[in-house]
């Protein structure tokens, strides 16, 4: 069993040399015998296969050392357990309850490479033969990279685990094989049925009515599709203009219908629409479209602008291509690779085009905001199925215009409204089932999170949630447990959750929603989701008391009515009127040149002090659009700043926030002498500043002594320096001084 | 500056700016018995003393010395007399009298100020009080010559201070006071100086407080084409190595790219050859020369002014190589700091040892020693590593010079400040000063409003009487240093900072380089800092409220013994200085 794999035996390269000698192995075996290692399994989780004596290379260490342990494959994850791995008490405080440090959900596997005879080869599902590679490199969708050596495992076990991993993570499977199903059949219902009460799920008529009421929208809730009578793609309930009849909806099965997204306080609104089937005769569709537009404009009362996304934004395939290039920049195998790629960092970033796509989306969103905000024109976003980039843009527009969506519950409600009810094909886009013939996968939802992150890092005090929250949300897409991300539509979900066989007498499955955060994180870890910089809405109560469950009323971002003047910073009436005149006068010309119009919007927006509860616009200049460092660099050891990073300021803010809270409590206690109604937020106290890495809370410090990263191969980049490089510092020898 | 509170002295029309400040300060602080303190100002010592007032005779009182000022207050309250003298005003301190003189006030101090005054004090003989106060004043009033000495408890048996350059006779671009190995005699130094470019011999910049490893700086050896050797230089470097017992090999960091070092042989320079310096290892740090840096910044300007390059921002930025040069400088400094931390002494040089060398030594000191990350410490650092060791500010900046294409000009100091800014970005809580502080330094690098950056070296400054004729930038900054304080600063004394010198973390200093663009300027207001300041204000509001409640409620509190924290504790706890 200790026969070295083909690569290990003759190789002289350090990448295949283990520091563990055969003697060590025997000692280890004894230890392992003493300590029985049980994998932590979730309800419904079954181990398919496992292999002992697998070596996991420790990434932090350039010396190719590793830890021995058992590699398992279950119906949920690939797991590595070692005797040396952290026990419960040393486990990091920010821990996912579903997954440990070395667990990879099957749906999180991005690519697997096999290394045999020093050749790195991409493993493709379905083509696996009985031969197995000596080393396995697993790249995850959350950008972790694992290196496992199978050299020291028993041949039989190694073969099995290799085939098992490839089969379960790289080969097509049916939806029923997704772990959520076996989990929900086994888990106690109480565990799964908890719902975040503040998040609107948009599954009921009431939720839509509430949203319509909150934004004072001039539309109606339609139940034409109740029980999916008309379309399986549409939600059961949605909102349309008053003039749209049930027959209209039935006519093209929901295509060509303007679905309401959000209403601006001026009365104009944001709509989205799927294209009409092309087979229709021109006359019919033209007439139909005309009627629909009339419905939107309420018979010409309110102008409308149509935004066809197919003509102005990249296609989904481009999205996927660009992201693949981009993500490659962070999947780094070795320190050498890190420093070599460092030389061309900026041009590689640019070549991937990912930041440019983010910029384009934000720019388009600003244009739409401009129509709604400055010209008080309704906007109708048109896309083929109105469930991809349409969702990105409608959500972004709403975040920029409505501070409610910058709260956590508001943001979650927005995702429910635009993405889940909006019928974004999460399952196909994420390609969790590995079905090749299906429509192209594309990171559409991730693109949206990226755009939100840009806004968040530019205007931190405007958001109630933190960067960590966004990162964790982006990770949750790849955990095959949440109804939120597992289906292509609400109908798809409802049918999937029905009992499989009629004879199986049980209630429909109840998949947890991703918003049920307690499933993944305890309260303490969840406290990191809150942004300590968030500026809450000005509180009327002088006693500084927070009224709980206060309904979010939409704040006027550019108030043009005197009914509700912004109490702190706002426009003066005259100024507003003036602006309105300018906008009205230039409306026509602006439409001819959209970027110019946005410029005006920016100028008027920048002229007043930034109101975090008002309109929020992204900065889009080259230096302003950045890489989401926390998400992309958190696992790269070379990129960690020891005891530094922006997390250190956040930490200071947290300390101050807790201090203020203590004082607040004390003042409350003294002035009221009764039980206070303030909810005390738990403040996270992590390890001391100096022991943290900039990737906190995602990687924790290890016992290893910190060595600074010293760039290697630094000369190449400057290869083409001009002849100046050969010159002396001081040409005029001797004359330089005195 | 005789800002005694008696009106007669206040009418003194010789008062300069700082004395106005001082008298306002003292008036404002009148109700407090204590010494007025600026943010960042730290009390050094208090002593009972007698002020020999030329007008009123001896006045008994207490003198307090901080790192910013000398403050005297009479015991007598009516009329009270105060003196408030920023240390920067002091030009000379002398002892007068002593054991042999007679009389009660025989141990005297005579302080000559730059503002036409002399202050005389008398101290008691007991407890060496005069010696203490003399040394403290000397150290803090003249940080330039003494920052070398103070932290390390010098001289000791390994290192000594030499005045061999007192009249700039050894090296005209070095300061007058130098720290050298104890074993090397002044004669040795003179011999070594013959073998070093422009006589810039290896001298100590910094000593590690724990492992005693040192950073030495110098210029290149004059090896030349023929590969000359110099026994004195070789022995001298070995002495340095031996002074720190743990170092088996002395590491010499040559800041230049290898090829450039070789090319320098043609002009008489070169590097320490393996044969000649057997106990040393030579590492090239690949930092390019002043011309490359100048062109790089020019390119950067082209892509940010007047319009910021839109479509290919990232690749354009890359093609300027500006951040890449920043990366190389930082990477070099990290290596120096790392070597020091592991107990090895290093020698740093480039060609002449006044550009890249200054960048490397000062940046590595910034990483190693938290003192230099304070407001005063950073001033000392610039003053020492740049100004006194002869970075050619005049030539590099071209003060008052019409020759804009002078090849001697180069933004080396700007690049250094950029590196410091990169460090503050990576360690936002480790520096006492903020971005504005760095920008103010850069603005005044060109402004010629202050004497700080004028001329190329100390010897010229002495002959031009810069100290007498100009004001220091630091006095301006220190007089309003509230503006320059980083609110997030957390004091951590013994931490070594290793920034990550990767393009992934290096950013363009937008708020400096693109500040003329109004659209960009708007974006640069740091929301996090603003919000933090708001929160600080909110905290103070609560504190005030609590205080009020405390006053109105005091009987009530007495009953309430089971409160979680007693109000005084609470108040005390939250009043962390910020």
TrEMBL record, chain A:
One cellular-component annotation, GO: sarcomere
Keywords: Cytoplasm, Sarcoplasmic reticulum
Signal peptide interval: none
Annotated catalytic residues: 386
Domain of life where this protein originates: Eukaryota
Pfam families the UniProt entry points to: 3-PAP, Myotub-related
Chief subcellular location: cytoplasm
Domain Myotubularin phosphatase: 202-632
Keyword Cytoplasm among record annotations: yes
Entry-linked PROSITE patterns: PPASE_MYOTUBULARIN
A biological process from GO: phosphatidylinositol dephosphorylation
The keyword Cytoplasm appears for this protein: yes
Entries under Gene3D superfamilies matching the protein: Pleckstrin-homology domain (PH domain)/Phosphotyrosine-binding domain (PTB)
Compartments it resides in: Cytoplasm, Myofibril, Sarcomere; Sarcoplasmic reticulum
Family: Belongs to the protein-tyrosine phosphatase family. Non-receptor class myotubularin subfamily.
Alphabetized PANTHER family for the sequence: MYOTUBULARIN-RELATED, MYOTUBULARIN-RELATED PROTEIN 12
Name of the featured protein: Myotubularin-related protein 12
Lineage: Eukaryota, Metazoa, Chordata, Craniata, Vertebrata
From TrEMBL, chain B:
Domain Tyrosine specific protein phosphatases: 320-366
Gene3D superfamilies in the record: Pleckstrin-homology domain (PH domain)/Phosphotyrosine-binding domain (PTB)
Biased composition (Low complexity): 10-21
Myotubularin phosphatase domain: residues covered: 127-513
UniProt keyword terms in alphabetical order: Cell membrane, Cell projection, Cytoplasm, Endosome, Hydrolase, Lipid metabolism, Membrane, Protein phosphatase
GO biological process: mitochondrion distribution; muscle cell cellular homeostasis; negative regulation of autophagosome assembly; phosphatidylinositol dephosphorylation
Active-site feature positions: 350
Record-annotated membrane-spanning stretches: none
EC identifiers of the protein: 3.1.3.95
Cellular location(s): Cell membrane; Cell projection, Filopodium; Cell projection, Ruffle; Cytoplasm, Myofibril, Sarcomere
CC annotations in GO: filopodium; late endosome; plasma membrane; ruffle; sarcomere
Region (Disordered): 1-32, 555-578
Catalytic activity: 1,2-dioctanoyl-sn-glycero-3-phospho-(1-D-myo-inositol-3-phosphate) + H2O = 1,2-dioctanoyl-sn-glycero-3-phospho-(1D-myo-inositol) + phosphate; 1,2-dioctanoyl-sn-glycero-3-phospho-(1D-myo-inositol-3,5-bisphosphate) + H2O = 1,2-dioctanoyl-sn-glycero-3-phospho-(1D-myo-inositol-5-phosphate) + phosphate; 1,2-dihexadecanoyl-sn-glycero-3-phospho-(1D-myo-inositol-3,5-bisphosphate) + H2O = 1,2-dihexadecanoyl-sn-glycero-3-phospho-(1D-myo-inositol-5-phosphate) + phosphate; a 1,2-diacyl-sn-glycero-3-phospho-(1D-myo-inositol-3-phosphate) + H2O = a 1,2-diacyl-sn-glycero-3-phospho-(1D-myo-inositol) + phosphate
Keyword match Cytoplasm: yes
GO MF term list: phosphatidylinositol-3,5-bisphosphate 3-phosphatase activity; phosphatidylinositol-3-phosphate phosphatase activity; phosphoprotein phosphatase activity
Pfam families xref list: GRAM, Myotub-related
Name the UniProt record assigns to this protein: Myotubularin
Taxonomic source organism: Acipenser oxyrinchus oxyrinchus
Gene symbol of the encoding locus: mtm1
